[in-house]
């Protein structure tokens, strides 16, 4: 937060408190109408995304048959930190299976130079010649985007891809991404592959994660891409046009959700985003505390991204376009506000059912019901097999947990704004 943003925040907070003291009934009415309006707008857009997903035929995945000699070099950057030998071995095996000529692959394993355990785990594997181990100097910030920027300097490819330690990409995914760039417009800056959860049967949190990812990557992001709007990118399985990536400044080393930040920044530099169909399988947190740490980091990073975007909102709107700017406010700020309000609204509605002191009206319940229905419709539109019926039924119990993560994010952004909470992978998630 800049000094100007802080002053503006406290001025608005002071006026709201004064308004509530002087006119409490009017303040409550306006607050209810404002929140209802924000939620209703988010719900309407998400219903539109679900309808768009339902009426759009599933993409037929056809592996492009481009001669190997005509394929560009693709650099794959893989940041690793505190990973076990089993995770490292599975990752290398998955990358070896990519259906792309080895002479055109440039795979960089980025490891903190003082992370001896992970370095040893990598050295125990027989690395093919197109893999390179790059020790990243152990300096602040200790973040994934810092490692990505370091690896970018030695990259040989004109397309830069990013994967995480637990990723298992479809073998033909790089070819589909290259084909998307070749068939796309000149302003295409990034291609996002869908992330799908492979361990959704390992617990309630994993099931909820599986539902979220199915909706996000099969419905929401394709909807935004079809509309030509900026994408809050996933942190992995994205393919960048190197020229546009470097023109936009690379990754923000201090942002703990560098993916979403970069997606919006590319839009400010005139870049467009697209999605492809071949997925990457990823692992969801199984334990509640691991989920909470990861979600706290995500929300902290989204708040960082929004604050940076709002340092000069008129400039940002002019650079990315006013419609795109409005969509970012809805998708980014709207989701932060919704996350913060889930728990208070649930408590308020629960009290309204048992206490006459809380006025619960029919339209309040209607908004909640329609919102819940929009999520079910989006899950259906994702056409993802194996989604848990129990997970869908218990979604309203999951949403208030987002408020706890958001509160932790607000505290962390004050005390530890650039702290990166590491998510355990593999066997570590079950210890």
Describe this structure in words.
This protein is α/β, with parallel strands linked by helices. The protein has one domain: Alpha-Beta Complex (Spore Coat Polysaccharide Biosynthesis Protein SpsA, Chain A), CATH 3.90.550. 56% of the residues lie in helices and 11% in strands. It contains 15 helices and ten strands. The strands form two sheets. Strands 3-2-1-4-8-6-9 form a seven-stranded mixed beta sheet, with helices on both faces. Helix 4 (116-123) links the parallel strand 2 and strand 3. Helix 1 packs across helix 2 (24-55) and helix 2 packs across helix 7.
Itemize the secondary structure elements and their pairings.
Layout: H1 3-22, H2 24-55, E1 74-80, H3 85-96, E2 105-112, H4 116-123, E3 131-136, H5 144-152, E4 159-162, E5 168-169, H6 173-183, E6 188-192, E7 195-197, H7 204-226, E8 238-241, H8 242-247, H9 258-268, E9 272-275, E10 280-282, H10 288-309, H11 313-320, H12 322-354, H13 362-381, H14 389-393, H15 395-415
Parallel strand pairs: 1-2, 1-4, 2-3, 6-9, 7-10
Antiparallel strand pairs: 4-8, 5-10, 6-8
Kindly list the characteristics that best describe this protein.
15 helices, globular, 56% helix, alpha/beta, 7-stranded mixed β-sheet, Spore Coat Polysaccharide Biosynthesis Protein SpsA, Chain A, 431 residues, 3-stranded mixed β-sheet
Low-pLDDT ranges = none
Q: Give me the side-by-side strand order of the main sheet.
A: 3-2-1-4-8-6-9
**Total count of strands:** 10
CATH architectural designation:
Alpha-Beta Complex
CATH superfamily: Spore Coat Polysaccharide Biosynthesis Protein SpsA, Chain A
């Amino acid at each position: 937060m800049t000094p100007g943003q802080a002053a503006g925040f406290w001025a608005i907070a002071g006026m709201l408190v004064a308004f509530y003291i002087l006119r409490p009934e009017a303040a409550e009415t306006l607050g209810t109408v404002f929140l209802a309006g924000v939620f209703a707008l988010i719900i309407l857009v998400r219903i539109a995304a679900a309808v768009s997903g339902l009426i759009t035929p599933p993409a037929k995945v056809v592996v492009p048959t481009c001669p190997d000699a005509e394929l560009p070099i693709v650099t794959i950057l893989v940041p690793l930190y505190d990973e076990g030998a089993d995770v490292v071995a599975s990752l290398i095996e998955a990358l070896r299976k990519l259906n792309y000529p080895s002479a055109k692959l440039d795979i960089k394993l980025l490891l903190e130079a003082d992370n001896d355990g992970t370095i040893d785990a990598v050295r125990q594997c027989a690395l093919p010649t197109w893999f390179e181990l790059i020790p990243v100097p152990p300096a602040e910030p200790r973040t994934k985007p810092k490692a990505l920027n370091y690896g970018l300097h030695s990259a040989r490819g004109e397309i830069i891809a990013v994967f995480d330690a637990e990723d298992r990409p479809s073998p033909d995914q790089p070819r589909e991404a290259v084909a998307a760039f070749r068939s796309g417009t000149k302003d295409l800056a990034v291609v996002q592959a869908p992330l799908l959860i492979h361990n959704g049967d390992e617990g309630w949190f994993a099931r909820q994660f599986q539902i979220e990812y199915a909706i996000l990557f099969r419905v929401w992001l394709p909807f935004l891409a079809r509309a030509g709007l900026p994408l809050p990118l996933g942190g992995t399985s994205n393919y960048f046009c190197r020229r546009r990536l470097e023109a936009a400044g690379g990754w923000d080393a201090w942002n703990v959700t560098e993916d979403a930040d970069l997606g919006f920044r590319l839009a400010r530099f005139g870049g467009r985003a697209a999605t492809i169909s071949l997925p990457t399988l990823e692992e969801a947190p199984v334990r509640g505390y691991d989920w909470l740490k990861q979600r706290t980091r995500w929300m902290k990073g989204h708040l960082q991204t929004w604050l940076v975007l709002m340092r000069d909102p008129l400039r940002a709107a002019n650079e990315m376009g006013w419609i795109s700017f409005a969509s970012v406010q809805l998708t980014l700020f709207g989701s932060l506000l919704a996350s913060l309000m889930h728990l208070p609204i649930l408590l308020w509605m629960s009290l309204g059912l048992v206490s006459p002191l809380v006025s619960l009206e029919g339209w309040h319940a209607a908004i909640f019901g329609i919102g819940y229905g929009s999520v079910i419709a989006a899950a259906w539109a994702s056409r993802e097999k194996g989604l848990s019926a129990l997970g869908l039924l218990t979604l309203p119990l999951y949403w208030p947990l987002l408020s706890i993560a958001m509160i932790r994010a607000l505290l962390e952004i004050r005390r530890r704004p650039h702290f990166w909470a590491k998510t355990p992978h593999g066997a570590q998630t079950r210890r």
